[in-house]
Automatic annotation (TrEMBL):
SMART domains: Catalase (SM01060). It is an enzyme of class 1 (oxidoreductase). The keyword Iron applies. Belongs to the catalase family. HPII subfamily. It comes from the Bacteria. This is Catalase. Keywords: Heme, Hydrogen peroxide, Iron, Metal-binding, Oxidoreductase, Peroxidase. Its cofactor is heme.
């Protein structure tokens, strides 16, 4: 049972209900008319004294704020985090200090490259940002669904974003990495090789935000009360496991329902199917910093879970949708520098740059230095300092003093020693010359890219190969195609040779020595140990008469499956209500299909068969009630089954990749 949620209570003080209220101006003046501006006669000009028109229009003209430079397309939800136990052996953070301790959270998921108006299902990394409203202040864990990044040093972040965004001469393409400037950047900044392998995998087309891992990406520090520090990487593990689209499906969903991921999250929470994620950490003692064959501060490297195992610390549950998308989802401000005692930073050069950039971007996007006073960003604990004034200041600070040190108010607000909860930075000894350079440990760009490739199942390798061929095949410059092939040859000769053939270039693959490293990390594979489940999956049931399907629908819902009825018309069909026609539904929007009828009308039946074809081509479970409702060619295919129990079992498998002639 969720305990008292202090953030929810705090937000109630700022929540307004307009239903059944009188219309007023922003100054509280009741207005008798809101449809007609004030004119000279019914055909005359509008006059300047119409203060209501001017206020309404001026507010409208200023409603938009700059979208995020990256992660513009997002959605969010409220929830809580519950600690599994006392983690004080590794960190002072109080929200991890005892079993059952609950902390309110707000989570924003997003794509990276696209604008606010782009589609959810594009091939892209996904943002996974969590704001913990702890008793010690806000802690923001700001990460992605991929554990590594394209660059090693934050100074190159503007270059990377410029390359992946639409090209400046024509603002094309939107929310895609399949274009010249992106691949030109990759080929000439080969530290991106590892991230590109993840990006070309199914990880970059997740089925749902509910079925997506989250990673802090950077290396942080945990520090306990005794001052003992560990390097740490943070992970979110979805309880439902990691699942994805197939590429053909992802492209079609972008047209059929560009809001697919935000709708999926919103609907799941409204239905009580609350998304859950376990928080886990990887820990490396300070004395083992150089004990590995990779540099632990390099953000283009993972710490293989087989070498650095996970420790689970708690579980997060998202159980409440936002009341207002702009006020909460758009105005929330995350920052990797929002930490609490027990959480500190490393010298990861990407992290160091993020510590500057996040505050800087909020200043322009949210209109000044007081974005912390916006309700969604306010901590649930008190905050006091000598910061004053600025745009949109909401706090009324009493007294004549706004400086430190002072005697007029007994030198308050006063610093708090560490023993009483004050934050102290970890005392790391740093010695060296000021230089613009990179550690030699960062120079290996390909061993972990090979590790990733070697760890993939045959299906995953096939999908990565197809993704490379699609993306690089969209590049116009043959020289860039050649450069990419030669870079990929450092990862896999087979992949490079296939890519060269498919995109029509001749590259010097043979001069590169064959790879001898065959290390694997099974944990990075989505399909080596998949989680089977049916709860919360959405299934279309095609029927003509309600009485023939009511027991079937009830049995599916009893198993936790979300059911939508598709027929030749909407409305009442006997004992059930049809949700969609074949024109308003689309097979790409479902996880499975049951066909319970055959239509006599030839055109309608053709629509049914097209529906079945699409589900088959995307390797999803298909159930049928009688042999005459399914094409004979499909009836013996994997995952195409007769009967309820067999269908539920097939649905749990998620995808049936061993189908013949499927083209997804």
């Amino acid at each position: 049972m969720e305990q008292e949620n202090k953030k929810k209570q705090q937000l109630e003080d700022y929540t307004v209900e307009d239903r059944d209220k009188a219309l007023t101006t922003n100054q509280g003046l009741k207005m008798s008319e809101d449809e007609f501006s004030l004119k000279v006669g019914d055909r005359g000009p509008t006059i300047m004294e119409d203060f209501h028109f001017r206020e309404k229009m001026t507010h409208f003209d200023h409603e938009r704020i700059p979208e995020r430079v990256v992660h513009a397309r997002g959605t969010a939800a409220h929830g809580y985090f519950e600690s599994y136990g006392d983690a004080s052996d590794i960190t002072m953070a109080k929200f991890l200090s005892e079993k059952g301790k609950q902390t309110p959270v707000f989570v924003r998921f997003s794509t990276v490259a696209g604008s606010r108006g782009s589609a959810d299902s594009v091939r892209d990394a996904r943002g996974f940002a969590t704001k913990f409203y702890t008793e010690e202040g806000n802690y923001d864990l700001v990460g992605n669904n991929i554990p590594v990044f394209f660059i090693q040093d934050a100074i190159k972040f503007p270059d990377f974003v410029h390359a992946v965004k639409p090209e400046p001469h024509n603002e094309i393409p939107q929310a895609q990495s399949a274009h010249d400037t992106f691949w030109d950047f990759v080929a000439n900044n080969q530290e991106a090789a590892h991230m590109v392998m993840w990006h070309m995998s199914d990880r970059s087309i997740p089925r749902s935000y509910r079925m997506m891992e989250g990673f802090g990406v950077n290396t942080y520090r945990f520090v306990n009360e005794d001052g003992v520090a560990h390097f740490v990487k943070l992970h979110w593990k979805p309880v439902l496991g990691v699942h994805s689209f197939v590429w053909d499906e992802a492209q079609k969903i972008a047209g059929k329902d560009p809001d697919f991921h935000r709708r999926d999250l919103y609907d799941a929470i409204e239905q009580g199917n609350y998304p859950e994620y376990e928080l886990a950490v990887q820990l490396i003692p300070e004395e083992q910093e150089f004990a590995f064959d990779f540099d632990i501060l390099d953000p283009t490297k993972i710490w293989p879970e087989e070498q650095v195992p996970l420790r689970k610390l708690g579980k997060m549950t998202l159980n409440r949708n936002v009341d207002n998308f702009f006020a909460e989802t758009e105005q929330v401000a995350f920052h990797v520098g929002h930490v609490v005692p027990g959480i500190d930073f490393s010298n990861d050069p990407l992290l160091q740059g993020r510590l500057f950039s996040y505050t800087d971007t909020q200043l322009i996007r949210l209109g000044g230095p007081n974005f912390h006073e916006i309700p969604i960003n306010k901590p649930v604990c008190p905050f006091h300092n000598n910061q004053r004034d600025g745009y949109n200041r909401q706090t009324i600070n009493r007294g004549q003093v706004s400086y430190h040190k002072n005697s007029l108010q007994n030198n308050t607000p006063n610093p708090v020693p560490r023993a009483n909860g004050g934050y102290e930075h970890y005392q790391e000894k740093v010695d060296g010359r000021k230089i613009r350079a990179r550690s030699q440990g960062f120079e290996d760009h390909f061993s972990q890219a090979r590790l990733f490739w070697n760890s993939m199942t045959p299906i995953e390798k096939e999908h990565i190969m197809k993704a490379f061929c699609f993306e690089v095949g969209k590049v116009q410059s043959m020289d860039i195609r050649k450069q990419v092939v030669e870079m990929v040859a450092h990862i896999s000769h087979d992949l490079a040779k296939t890519l060269a053939e498919k995109v029509g270039v001749t590259a010097t693959i043979e001069t590169i020595p064959e790879e001898t490293e065959m290390k694997q990390s099974p944990a990075v594979s989505m399909y080596t140990n998949p989680i089977r489940f049916v709860e919360t999956k959405k299934v279309a049931v095609i029927i003509q008469k309600g009485e023939e399907a009511k027991p079937l629908i009830e049995a599916l819902e009893a198993a936790g499956i979300v059911v939508e009825i598709v027929s030749d018309r909407q409305g009442t069909l006997g004992d059930v209500i049809s949700d969609h026609t074949f024109d308003t539904a689309s097979p790409v929007l479902y996880d499975g299909l049951i066909v319970a009828t055959k239509f006599e009308d030839a055109l309608t039946q053709r629509k049914v068969e097209t529906f079945i074809d699409e589900v088959y081509n995307h390797y999803k479970a298909i159930g049928y009630t009688d042999e005459d409702v399914i094409q004979v060619a499909y009836s013996k295919a994997p995952g195409v089954v007769k009967g309820l129990e067999a269908f539920i079992d097939a649905l749990a498998t998620d995808r049936h990749f061993d189908r013949e002639y499927a083209i997804g």
